[in-house]
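INFO batch 0412 | record 1 of 1 | parsing
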Amino acid sequence: MVDDVFYVLQSCCRRAISTSNINSVLALLSGAMNLLSNEYQEALQQKMREPNLGTKLFLGGAGVHKTGTEIATVLNNMDVSSEYVLKLRHEIEEQCIEIFPAPADREKIKSCLSDLGEMSNSFKQILNAGMEQLVATVTPRVRPVLDSVATIGYELSETEYAENEVNDPWVQKLLHSVEKNAAWFQPLMTTNNYDLYVHLVIDFIVKRLEVIMMQKRFSQLGGLQLDRDIRTLVSHFSSMTQRTVRDKFTRLTQMATILNLEKVSEILDFWGENAGPMTWRLTPAEVRRVLGLRVDFKPEAIAALKL
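INFO prediction complete | emitting tokens
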């Protein structure tokens, strides 16, 4: 549908421009905008409005892949439409420069073309909403594994730390759940869409992990364990998407850095003027709170810090 619609629009625009009649071009552009913003946009969104769409993804059987393919196709159409609108705008602009030299005519065309640019943004907004809807159906499948992290202890002895290195307590289970419930969309989506999809899943995971970790108590080895866990997550998710994921985990990484400190005052080696290239995503209050998670750090030492 997408290729056909834009091929027809492209052909009509070329024909209108070839008449050298500014009113014909403006009328055609107005009609194109009306089509894209109404019937076409409605057709794009129709599938995502089906009831119980998320449930169908996890019923089992051949219908699951069919539903997944249909959803991915809808989202792909939104992504491609956003790109095609900009290409159409650029082509019309190039052709009109040659045909309509009068400044007044060019200004009228420019005004219409700016609407096409806005239409591209509109498609992106619809895409984001559709992608969030999809992610909302997938994340409940991942959440049980995430919630189980709340039962994992981080007040580790050397023996426990060594044991975790051999038998990972939760990270691999989480990654397996992501692969099982989310990664199968990869061959069905455009690269741009799959990257967006993965990043939204990461957002969900990171937000939940931050809440869970803020409720724990840590030994220094526990802080080292958290650092190892986060590095494993970053490495795996980096392999799933072409866009960088490291910034998504910055707050968790900074929490791990704090929990790895030898003593409370060491935070000053990384704070303020000593931060170097590091940009702190944690507020001073959050830094104090994270320091307070260490079982061996004294509250009075934390309170005395000047951050």
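INFO post-check: The chain is about 70% helix and 0% strand.
INFO record closed
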